[in-house]
Amino acid sequence: MEIIPAVKTQESVLFDLIKGHREENPIRRESLVKQMNAKGYGLGDRAMRNLVTRLRKMGYLICSTPYGGYYVAATMREYDDFKRREYKAKILDMAETMRAMDRAAVDQFGEQTQLELFYI
């Protein structure tokens, strides 16, 4: 009986490249793209970042540095620092933008009954 090797997904290959890196020695985004392409995946920078997002949505604690490096959080502090730096500021900025646009919409169109799904 022939043993068929397990097929590795792009996500699993990417995680294998990142998982050995920590906050003090992140792997650069350009290096990941180059290594993924050397393995035959033919990814551009945007596609590689989308794969990282997919892994994060699967629960992998992949963090990034402000200068384009990736690593796996080794402690809660590392994860919290990343979360605060990467997501909190963006969420607050988007909420502020949405509130300003909501006020402008009311000024322009008047009060209208609407579902309030996204009020923050």
Report on this model:
The mean pLDDT is 88. A hairpin with a 4-residue loop joins strand 2 (62-64) and strand 3 (69-72). The chain contains four helices and three strands. The longest helix has 34 residues, at 76-109. Strands 1-3-2 form a three-stranded antiparallel beta sheet. It has a single domain, classed as Orthogonal Bundle (Arc Repressor Mutant, subunit A). It is mainly alpha-helical and 120 residues long. The radius of gyration is 20 Å and the shape is elongated. The relative contact order is 0.11.
List the helices and strands and how they pair.
Elements (H helix, E strand, L loop, with lengths): L9 H9 L8 E2 H10 L6 H13 L4 E3 L4 E4 L3 H34 L11
Antiparallel strand pairs: 1-3, 2-3
